[in-house]
Amino acid sequence: MNNKYLKIYNELAKKIETGEIRPKSQLPSENQLSKEYDLSRGTVRKALDLLVQNGYIQKVHGKGSIVLDINKFDFPVSGVVSFKELSQKLGQDSKTILLELDILQGDEFLMEELHLDKEDEVWKLVRVREIGGQKIILDKDYLKRDAVPMLTKEICEDSIYEYIEGELDLKISFAKKLISVEEPTLEDKENLDLAGYNVVVVVKSYVYLEDATLFQYTESRHRPDKFRFVDFARRSH
Are residues 46 and 95 in the same domain? Predict the structure, then answer.
């Protein structure tokens, strides 16, 4: 039957999900799995490829199939990705909860961060991001109102980037990011399921449009056990 590989996939996936197979451990080789399940190496390879595709394992040259920590989500440092795009990629139930939507003017901190004049207006949004039933990100966003004239609760709980690019026809181009580890604030403790952790990972982002206009400053506060911050680096010569 063509779905024989699913038997291997489902059994290995379940063992990884329940912790019977631990993160960073190595799966048996294709030959070993082929003998264990009495199936061809081609069928085994198809099951392993599906495990790779769904984020359970990583194939490492010379080491075989290494089990990934499925309780951590890869957060791309170098990319500009919305929470909606990230959660769709993860394939997990997610939810955005809007705590605050307001317009600020003359805030000295924001005037410096966003290069504003005193009369310039800024949207302030505070949102909690929930994945798998746990509140694990607190996002505090500030957007120039001359770039984004109107925001609603519905837009904020769906995708602001989708609205900006789809409805306002603006192109979001690049961002500068600063990452630090800090003690949780009272606001963090009130709004996140910190599960006893006494630090949060803070990502501060300065986001620019295609014409190099700085239009957004964001402070994204993450529970530390749930994310891997990944990047690709190349050595220059």
Answer: no
